[in-house]
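#structure-requests
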Amino acid sequence: MRSYKQRQTQVKNEIHNLLQRANIKLTSYLSDIFSKTGQALLKLFINGETINVESVIPCIQKRVKASPEELVEAMEEKLSLEDRFLLDQSLEEYQMYQELIEKLTDEIQHYIEKEFP
């Protein structure tokens, strides 16, 4: 599990660096860009959608304190086609490791419950 977590952290850092290079400041308004809201906003970039209040509102979960206008402002910059591809690949890899970690955690929990009732 440690290697999964290490690689997942590397992927997260790659995504942060890509966004920073592109001058996209989502981390100014979201404490975790890998939350449901953050991933939904990243998908807007990946899909090449127009970033405006109307496209951002459906992405926002209840607990997000930032306004849609603030998020749009943070996402004003454009991503190149290459960066969109890299972001897509990195986000998919992050999600894959997240699923593997969750599955392994469930397996460990099941083993503990079975062997140590």
